Amino acid sequence: MSQAPARAAGGPAHGAIKNRTLPAWPVASILAFYPIWWALGLGVLIFALMAVPMLFLLIRRRAAGRPLRLPPGFAWWAIFLIAVVVSLGALGADPVGTVAGHATGRLPAAGYKALMYAALTVLLVYAGNLTEDELPRRRLVKLLGWLFVVTVLGGLLGMVAGTFEFTSPVEWLLPSGVRNKGFVQSLVHPYAAQIMDIVGEGQPRPAAPWGYTNTWGNNFCLLAGWLVVAAWQSRSGKAKFWAVVCLVVSVVPAVVSLNRGLWIGAGVLVLYVAVRYVLAGKLWIIGAVAIAAALLGVALVATPLGTVVGARLDNGKSNGVRSFLIDRAIDGFQGSPIVGYGGTRNTVGGRNSITVGESAGCERCGNFTVGGNGQLWQLLFAHGAVGTAGYLGFFAYGLWRFRRDRSAIGVAGSAAIVTSFSAMLWYNSLVTPLAFMVLAFALLWRNSIEGETT
Predict the structure, then answer these.
(1) Cα separation, 182 vs 176, whole angstroms
(2) In terms of C-beta distances under 8 Å and separation of at least 24 residues, what long-range contacts does 288-296 make, across chains too?
(3) Which 3 state secondary structure label does DSSP give 196?
(4) Range of the domain at 12
(5) Which of 281, 332, 391, 412 is the most exposed place for a label (fewest CB within 10 A)?
(6) How confident is the model over 271-297, as pLDDT tens digits?
(7) What is the count of structural domains for the chain?
(8) What secondary structure does DSSP assign to 30-58, as a single string?
């Protein structure tokens, strides 16, 4: 008779412990199987889908009596999220020089961005609350390093099969009137590269599996450091060897992508890491960077890669458009400096004349997207000073808070955030670049909790 009460008491206790545990699979499955999500047509949508079980599990654990931690500086991020929601009230406004429209027509795109910001907030809190038993930091680093390998493979695919594309299962399920829309196509239609005429007609620029060439370049810089950390932490010489091979091979698609933002970002990444190591007294990094720079210089001189770089630097076709859009974003910010306009807008005509616009014969003429040429400009235009301060304040506070973390994870995580700061001048962050930024923040945060910062 004494055994029954023991089982009764043990059952709830066991259940309570189980409810307080956060499983790793919502985060791990996003990263480990991202190529599959991309092929299925889920791609960036997987972040919103996985946010549902993550939110449920966080609420369940809180209800079981285990408190949830919020990341340091979360008040800044909360200010940003509030600004995103409040700014939706300005969707009906038509800034000077933009195409007139209605709030209802702009709501789907703005709502999508707001939803993704919310989903990545859940990812940040969930990843930061995972313990070493639930998802070791070393495993999370390996998953991010794996995605750099995926990025390189996607770049090679874009080089050798630039026209490769296919209809995804999700795309098949959508009504034709929906799946043929450009915005929907960018979400559910997998393709290897974007075909552009920057240095020649029909030049493929790697995009897989990130949807856009610029996103591919942004993620390249955000993920490269994690491959190095994963190899550094590995006891296997074989793993280190293949990591070096991957880094060497990655130079080819990085150059062929014609992505100047990537080239600048890679330079910022290397410079930041070198400075951090020099300040820590590890002067050997100077020799390592010098050797790498020399080998890169030889490769550019001795192979056709140098010709590609030269051709790209001689063809700055996008410079005028970027300057035009920056001016329009600043003008728009001055018109609504506090809350912005809730989303992007299309310009009336092009940069040379208001009569130059998009047409069936010239889909890339005019009607450029204000806020589509860099996260900073989108923040200022869409969410005003309040939203911009909240967004930048959160990541800047993280850099300051974790500035003394000299561990491999600490340097790589802060380097990713620093690189993203330079990239926001020409790249937009939603969805995957921002996901990798918040995961870098989560790793820094967990490092500080575990006390492993040296």
Answers:
(1) 12
(2) 296/251
(3) strand
(4) 3-450
(5) 281
(6) 999 999 999 999 999 999 999 999 989
(7) 1
(8) HHHTHHHHHHHT-TTHHHHHHHHHHHHHH
